[in-house]
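Q: I'm writing up a methods section and want to include an example of the input and output format. Could you take the sequence below and give the corresponding predicted structure tokens, formatted cleanly so I can copy it straight into the document?
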Amino acid sequence: MTKIALAQVLGGAARALDTAGRMAGEAALAGASLICFPEQFVAGWLPEIPPGSGEPLDGPLATAFGRMARESGIAVAGSIIEARGGGRPQNTVVILDANGELLATYAKIHLFSPGGEDRNYTPGDRVATFTIDGMTFGLAICYDLRFPEIFRIYALAGAECVLLPAAWPCRRLRHWETLIPARALENQYYVAGVNTVGGVYCGGSLAAGPDGDTIARGGSGEELLFVDLDPAAIHEARMRLPTFSDHRSDLYHRLLSNL
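A: Here is the clean output for your methods example:
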């Protein structure tokens, strides 16, 4: 069993990083192996940003997350705007292990075109997995949730839980509450989404298990949400309904080639 924490933090607040540090310490004391923060929670989600903006992977914010991980003794999933050599930056999640060392990075693949994110950021072009406490995690960010292909790729890559930092607005929270359990159910693993609060965002962080049931749900304010992940539950779900072995990928490829 692996315990993780989802930190529902007020986005864009001057005290956001201090709050995050306090929550990391609380999560570690509660026995969590990892804490995940929302998408761009320190500065607030910024779809419009000048070229050349952001910081490198060893920049101030990533360094702060590393220090937070070392001081609390817990792995940290934080969100930065990653500089890309003077061009358009990337919306990136960094994973720092309990020693503060960079373990994995993931740049958002599906950029939110209705908000102009695609005009100001460079999309990612690869998935990322990492292991904490013996459990394999995958990473996605916010709008990625609407694209099931990436979640199936993670399942095929051996992920047991996909972490989803987000800045998901209140007016579309119903979609969030529908899609997270659906992604978990169709891939028979855990999906844990952490959302920001404040302004147009109203929390509702959500985790679903391999049978699609909601196992943790946040309220509308700042909150630390704990989720227990059990690899045996994944195995049991896949034994009951062997959708992976029944999947007709051979036929799908042939049908697609005939279009």
